[in-house]
Design brief:
two-stranded antiparallel ribbon; 6 helices; 32% helix
């Protein structure tokens, strides 16, 4: 059985401003002081030395988070493009509130986030299904490579949500994005690819 621990990066200025970050990698998507503190707090409350290695999204905010989390343990780190955040295409970098006002039919009033059909309005946007597919591919490959491994994954909110959706065979917004610097645990049978969501969106301090 392979055990995955998925961590969402710490807070960024874009998070604070309510922007769609997507795959933007500019200074306003780097960790804020609070984001760095969130990562330090998680490192103090979660024993990363129990893991075998870390896989990290290539964006700066995830690399910054991983560096703080891995300061003591010094685990092997691999960068993997499949861990990128969803790309909102031409909506990347725009204010969520303004997008909701202009395209209300593509947002859920309940959770103030895009629904699956948002790709009809956002040029060059990535679909929910595409993110979920690359997450499935990552889990299949890594679980087969490390069938008894304990794997840390530092990634993004929608990406963590996609791993969880795959595990429970859900869809749409049944599972929402986790909080910054929360941990979610999924166990995977490398042979059958059966998965179990053990816990989701667990904060350093409960």
């Amino acid at each position: 059985m392979t055990t995955f621990f998925f961590v969402r990066h710490g807070q960024t200025a874009a998070n604070k401003a309510g922007l769609k970050q997507g795959t933007i990698n500019t200074p306003n998507t780097y960790l804020t002081d609070l984001g760095k503190e969130q990562a330090r707090e998680l490192a103090d409350h979660f024993d990363f030395s129990q893991l075998d290695r870390l896989f990290v999204s290539p964006l700066v905010r995830t690399k910054q988070t991983a560096e703080i989390l891995n300061k003591k343990s010094q685990l092997p780190v691999e960068i993997d493009d499949r861990l990128l955040e969803i790309s909102y295409g031409d909506w990347d970098g725009q204010e969520n509130a303004k997008l909701m006002a202009e395209y209300p039919q593509y947002f859920s009033d309940l959770v103030n986030d895009v629904t699956e059909d948002y790709v009809q309005a956002a040029p060059h946007a990535e679909s929910f299904a595409h993110v979920e597919a690359r997450c499935r591919d990552f889990v299949a490959e890594i679980s087969k490579k490390y069938p008894e491994g304990k794997i840390g994954v530092v990634t993004h909110g929608f990406t963590v949500r996609s791993f969880a959706i795959n595990a429970v065979k859900g869809q749409g917004l049944e599972i929402l994005e986790p909080d910054n610097c929360s941990v979610s645990k999924i166990i995977v049978d490398p042979l059958t690819q059966k998965q179990h969501l053990v816990y989701y969106n667990r904060a350093a301090k409960m």
